[in-house]
Amino acid sequence: MSSTIQIRVDDELKQKSDALFKELGTDTTSAVRIFLTQAVARNGFPFEIRKTAPNPYTALTEEELLQKLETARNHASQGKLRDADDAVSDLRAKYGL
Length: 97
Fold this sequence. Notes:
By secondary structure, this protein is mostly helical. It has helices at 11-23, 28-42, 62-77, 84-95. The longest helix has 16 residues, at 62-77. It folds into two domains: 1-47, Orthogonal Bundle (Arc Repressor Mutant); 62-95, no CATH class.
């Protein structure tokens, strides 16, 4: 016995995927069947799913660094700061560390 799955996709996506799978020697229906088979075999997506995020460790320009230092000084002078031990304690409690 077999079941039918119907999905709606954008026309452009359908055309591009049809062309791609044809170049790969298959069709979109077979590609979806391959995806489902691999998902079951791997007990999850057969590829990595992740949110792309900008690298937080990119270097700052001197001007950006000086601006951040100035902002920090202003916050400190206005009393907008927390004790580091309190912040670490809150993080440990929140994340069970």
